Amino acid sequence: MGDWAKLQRELNFQFANLSLLQQAFVHRSYLNENPDCSLGSNERLEFLGDAFLGLVIAEALYQQPEPLTEGEMTRIRSAIVCQESLAKLASSLHLGDYLYLGQGEEKSGGRKRPRNLACAFEALIGAALVDRGIEATRNLILRLFNHTLRRLVEEGIASDYKSRLQELVQAERQERPVYQLVAEEGPDHNRRFTVEVLVGGKVAGRGSGKSKQLAEKEAARKALERWE
To answer: Which listed residue (122, 131, 196, 216) is catalytic?
Structure first.
């Protein structure tokens, strides 16, 4: 079975109760073939982890410096906690190597099955919550999802305004708005981008932000204020 010390190092998270960590990887098929196993299945931990993961991501979205709409928060949270996203993260952590599987599940490719990987990840979060509590587990989640959360927030809030503007422009003019970068200022750790959005060759909006996506979003928002 997997190297539990290695997994904890990769997670930068130490379990006080190792059996909880191990239980997070016990698939029901394993217990069907090994009824004397002292570990229970990971299903209850998965339930707990799923609920807490959704809460932490929702809280992180709510606390963004630039407020998100309810629709934006819902879409971004769904993209983060969906099976595909969790399975991808679980795969990057090689969680499949730690799964306890029945022989049939093993032979049918269960270690790479997205559902098994996503469930194991949620169970891992549940085990961490039981073992170390709310704050330590919240920090673990935010650390693991930091890059994805930041990227989806920037892309998500930009796409809403940009999509709405594109719909309006195409409906009335049968063309698409064009975004152009007009300024890039500041040191590498604190860059500031300025973007203009053109409709029919004329500036319809201008916006600035810490990334091109945020600047485009602001330009689209200002264009919409005039348009609508």
So the answer is: 122
Interatomic CA distance for residues 223 and 200, integer angstroms: 13
Type of residue found at 180: Q
- Please tell me the total count of domains within the chain: 2
Report which secondary-structure segment, H or E, holds 22.
helix 18-23
The pLDDT tens digits for 174-228 are 889 999 999 999 888 889 999 999 998 899 999 998 888 889 988 998 898 877 5
Q: Is 122 a catalytic residue?
A: yes
Name the active-site residue from 50, 72, 131, 154: 50
Quote the domain boundaries for residue 126: 4-132
SS3 3: coil
User: By C-alpha distance, which of 47, 225, 211, 217 is closest to 129?
Assistant: 47
Nearest to 120 by CA among 5, 222, 29: 29
CATH number at residue 128: 1.10.1520.10
The answer to whether residues 125 and 15 belong to one domain is yes
Say whether pTM exceeds 0.85.
no
Residue 82 CB neighbours (<10 A): 12
